[in-house]
Amino acid sequence: MAGRDADALGLDVPDLAPGGSARDVSEDAIWAALATCYDPEIPVNIVELGLIYDLSVARSPKGARVGVKMTLTAQGCGMGPSIASDAQSRIEALPGVAEARVDVVWDPPWNAAMMSPEAQRRLGMS
Questions:
Q1: What pTM value is reported for the model?
Q2: Domain 3-112 has CATH 3.10.50.40
């Protein structure tokens, strides 16, 4: 599910307007953008699911380059490319971001303990 459609789940949709410079890019803004991305089969965002393993920001006069390593709940997930593409688009929509790269990795393997307590509660796991 695209983050812009989060309201269908009763969640807030942040305004991610273009513009700005690399110095304006904060990790908090990137995390917030990633929190607008959803696995279409699970009504919890990819941050709360614990799917984001690493985030890096390299700043230059041409804009920030953001790198993200993420995983999926299962290696056979057919939505993986779509979720990664959505995450990349959300990051690139941030003011000051020139480029984003989202790589899907499998190490360490994801497990339900990686979810936030709120995600576990929403999914009836706690």
A1: 0.82
A2: no
